[in-house]
Amino acid sequence: MLLVSLATVALVLLVACANVTNLMLLRVTGRTRELAIRMALGAKPKALIRQLVVEGICLGSAAGVLGLAVGGAGKKLLLWQMEWQSPELNAINFSWPVLLFTFGISVLAGVIFALVPAMTVVRAEMHDMLRRASSTTTVDVKGRRLRQGFVVTEIACSMVLLVGAGLLVRSLQRLQHVSLGFKTENRIVVPLSLPRTKYQRDADLVRFYQQVVEKVRTLPGVMDATFVTYLPLNGHFPGGFQIVKTGESSAVFNPAVLRLADSHTLSVLSVPMLHGRFLEDSDYGESEPVCVISKALAQKYWPNEDPLGKLLVLTRGDVQGEKKPRRVVGVASDVREYINEEPQSSIYVPYAQVAFFNMQLLVHTHDSAAEVRKSVSVVLQSVDPDQPIHAVNVFGDFLPDALADWRVAIILLGGLAGIAVLLTVLGVFAVIAFMVREKAREIGIRMAIGATQQNIRNLVLLQTAWLAIIGVVLGTIVSAACTRLLGSLVYGVSFADPLTFLSVTTLIAALALLASYIPARRAMQVDPMQTLRSE
Question: Does 235 have pLDDT greater than 80?
């Protein structure tokens, strides 16, 4: 996400530089007479270049100072809006390297977008500049094409940003309606970490868990409770297994999510059993080692067989420290460990047979969980007064947290895309407005020989339409290549999603035509008699 944000900022900077370069070109074009007179009086091209570059440095320096001030305010706004979704954003800070780098980029950009107009002055001959400065000059074709090229670049960059933001929005919509395979409503989570110095034996761990869960199940307002290792959407315990065939285990290591649980885990999570049975209270340390596998694991390793009765060996030792073969006694429905990934292979193992120090108490409550939280805390303190309770979380909050990356990315990418689009609209407006002023004589002649105001309006809008079409085509090609950099942030939609591309194309075209509407209205109001009289 940080790389995407960096690329987005780079595109916005490119749009801003193209916009300012265009404005500088327009400014230099308006100063053609001044520059031509200076060259006629003996000014060397280097002196004129130096003047324009110094102007660009001053402009870039002023923009850098203002940008740092806006960046400080923007940081506070960003933290205020998204701190609850991404607490790690608190680590964002302005250091001297960041300040110097940002200010240096601003000054460098000022120099670059001042050099482009300066080079047009150097390459132009003196008589050519005097001719363009004349009141009867024709349109500067090369300068006009250069300005139009910058507008096309702005439109293409804006389209890339808008397409990226659109794909993220579409992905977030799909993720909000994806089936997780379990329920999170009216469930609270209490993470526990038992000290190894106090609970040195596995039997002590199991006894603590069983005492707590039995008391919690009897509390008023509690429907059920279970102890389980890492819950879905909150990370998982990486593990693996080896399939036992003909009395010997295979040497092939198969990755899977290992979830320690008890007989109530699936009912608390509302995960249905598909085949066989789930774990039972009788599955204790001395009983036969058993496990329950997920549907994804069964279909992957036993696609055409009944997995019940199959033997597998966990890569982690049992209570006795031995890697005993475990018999598959059931197949459970799949659950998503991560919201944007398909269900993985999972194995449910009784924690009474594979003890672990870090577990989570999951409690299924009625509508109100406030009183239950206090009661659960009391139960834990009654079993072990020295056991600290770090937090009592709401399981339903895990889902917004799992979607936090997409929301943050949409805010960053969408906000910067909005800035780029605004700059593009201003750039289109400036170029078309200057074109109308540049072609005032041509427009006057057209109207004098019979062109209507609608013809003039359509002429200006057609010019904008061509710029928009070229920019959209270029933007579509670049977007199709760049959107793949979003990687796993795009879910459930194609990187070349037709609806997103069509929507962005329509929006870009509409905004470009809207930006040229005011210049088109001004062109319609040109007085042909006054224009010809001035000639």
Answer: no
Residues 524/456, Cβ–Cβ less than 8 Å:
yes
Give yes or no for a contact between 456 and 139, defined as CB atoms under 8 angstroms apart.
no
For residue 177, which amino acid is it? H
Find the length of the chain: 535
The model's pLDDT over 25-47, given as tens digits with 9 standing for 90+, comes to 777 766 666 776 777 777 777 88
**Nearest residue to 124 via CA among 137, 106, 110:** 137
Q: Kindly state the helix (H) or strand (E) to which residue 420 belongs, with its residue range.
A: helix 404-438
Which has more pLDDT, 28 or 171?
171
pTM score > 0.90 for this model? Answer: no
Phi, psi of 242 (to 5 degrees): -125, 135
Which is nearest to 326 in space by CA: 337, 336, 316?
316
Beta bridge pairs of residue 494: none
DSSP conformation letters of 179-231: --SS--TTEEEEEEE--TTT--SHHHHHHHHHHHHHHHHTSTTEEEEEEESS-
Q: For strands 325-332 and 290-294, give the pairing.
A: parallel
Rounded Cα gap, residues 356 and 316, in angstroms: 11
Return the number of other C-beta atoms located less than 10 Å from residue 99's C-beta.
Answer: 13
- What is the secondary structure of 215-226 as a DSSP string? HHHTSTTEEEEE
Rounded to the nearest angstrom, the gap between the alpha carbon of residue 85 and the centroid of all alpha carbons in its chain is 13
Q: How many CB atoms lie within 10 A of CB 476?
A: 18
Token pair listed for 236: 């998982």
Tokens coding 400: 């917004």
In terms of DSSP bridges, do strands 254-261 and 346-350 run parallel, antiparallel, or are they unpaired?
parallel
